[in-house]
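User: tokens in, sequence out, please.
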């Protein structure tokens, strides 16, 4: 199995400048390759330029521009071209399926923050010895950069990525490991219902409160964004000291909110994996749930629109994204796989409207957001707990139907 390790880099001033130049040149390569594809599609009878054709041009590009493109790893440049090819293929796939195409766009230097090295030893080298207190990673064109290795790396390093977050630099290792020993069986099964008022309710009646990190940081973030909006938009090299500090302040607040959300998701998922052998959850389509409502033209007034509840839906969408359900479910699946636990996704329809006692399903069974009151048998419970119970039962039925 592949596991990722993320460590903070401690570059010198010269190394940090080299890292910035590496991102800039890879961004230029990405934009140039995208421009070539656009021109070929528009002016050469809609012909398609593929990855193999652009990868074959790298030798000529490096020879033509040795000061910029020639100093970096050939494999990392191929990885940048693969990233573009992947984005193009995803756009074509969406067109065929009738979705919004989302054609790849040109990247600004501030929006290109990652360089991938597909193999350890090819343009990069992870240098870590067990008894050496200082760990370094060697990057072609940059040098040996110190790494704050806060935990040991077990397994064989396969891929290395360098990532910029604000003014900090990180190295991400893709490590191949043997499958770990599963955790001891607990004999417990649980169903969970994700929500907004409570982040999580389980079938046992327990609740995990919603920390609402976005709402807690909204005031500071709004003030920082207002301070940033007072500066005119300009390129990064033309920013004044105050402008750069305002940009850094906004980035720091966003990063802090993201780290808090990740920390909460990791701890909640770990508690579930340690306590239960089988975990059932709703198969939520989060992108559809947080989609803005379509506009409704007024037939009686050309150019006018009818109310469509966009303001209320915007608040709900903001709460859904603030809860971070997608991140939590991704982490839960990864931790369950490492621990030998089973995670089952079930259809969420009517899970909070079906009585767990008599099986009666009706909209009237849920008179309020929190209360469940069965119109047939009179059963009263918390609506989220009822939803978690029904999710668990559906998960066990699905598990028994597919024993393999």
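Assistant: Sequence out:
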């Amino acid at each position: 199995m592949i596991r990722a390790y993320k460590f903070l880099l401690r570059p010198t001033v010269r190394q940090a400048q080299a890292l910035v130049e590496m991102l800039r040149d890879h961004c230029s390569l990405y934009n140039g390759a995208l421009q070539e594809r656009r021109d070929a599609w528009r002016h050469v009878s809609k012909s398609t330029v593929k990855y193999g054709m652009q990868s074959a041009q790298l030798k000529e590009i490096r020879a033509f521009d040795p000061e910029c493109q020639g100093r970096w790893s050939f494999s990392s440049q191929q990885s940048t071209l693969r990233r573009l090819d992947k984005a193009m293929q995803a756009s074509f796939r969406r067109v065929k399926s009738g979705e919004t195409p989302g054609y790849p766009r040109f990247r600004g230097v501030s929006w290109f923050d990652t360089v991938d090295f597909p193999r350890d030893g090819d343009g990069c080298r992870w240098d870590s010895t067990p008894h050496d207190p200082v760990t370094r990673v060697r990057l072609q064109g940059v040098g040996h950069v110190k790494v704050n290795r806060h935990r040991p790396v077990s397994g064989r390093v396969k891929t290395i990525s360098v990532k910029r977050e604000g003014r900090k630099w990180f190295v991400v290792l893709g490590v191949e490991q043997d499958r770990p020993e599963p955790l001891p069986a607990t004999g417990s099964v649980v169903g969970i219902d994700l929500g907004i008022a409570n982040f999580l309710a389980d079938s046992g009646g327990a609740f995990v409160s919603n920390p609402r990190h976005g709402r807690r940081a909204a005031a500071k973030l709004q003030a920082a964004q207002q301070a940033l909006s007072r500066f005119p938009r300009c390129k990064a090299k033309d920013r004044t000291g105050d402008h750069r500090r305002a940009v850094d302040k906004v980035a720091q607040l966003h990063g802090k909110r993201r780290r808090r959300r990740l920390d909460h998701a990791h701890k909640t998922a770990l508690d579930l994996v340690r306590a239960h052998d089988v975990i059932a959850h709703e198969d939520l389509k989060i992108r559809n749930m947080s989609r803005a409502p379509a506009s409704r033209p007024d037939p009686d007034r050309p150019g006018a629109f009818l109310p469509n509840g966009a303001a209320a839906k915007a608040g709900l969408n903001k709460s859904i994204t603030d809860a971070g359900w997608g991140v939590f479910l991704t982490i839960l699946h990864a931790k369950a796989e490492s621990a030998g636990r089973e995670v089952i996704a079930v259809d969420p329809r009517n899970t909070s409207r079906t009585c767990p006692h008599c099986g009666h399903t009706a909209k009237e069974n849920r008179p309020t957001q929190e209360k469940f009151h069965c119109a047939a048998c009179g059963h009263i419970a918390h609506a989220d707990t009822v939803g978690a119970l029904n999710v668990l039962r559906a998960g066990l039925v699905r598990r028994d139907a597919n024993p393999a």
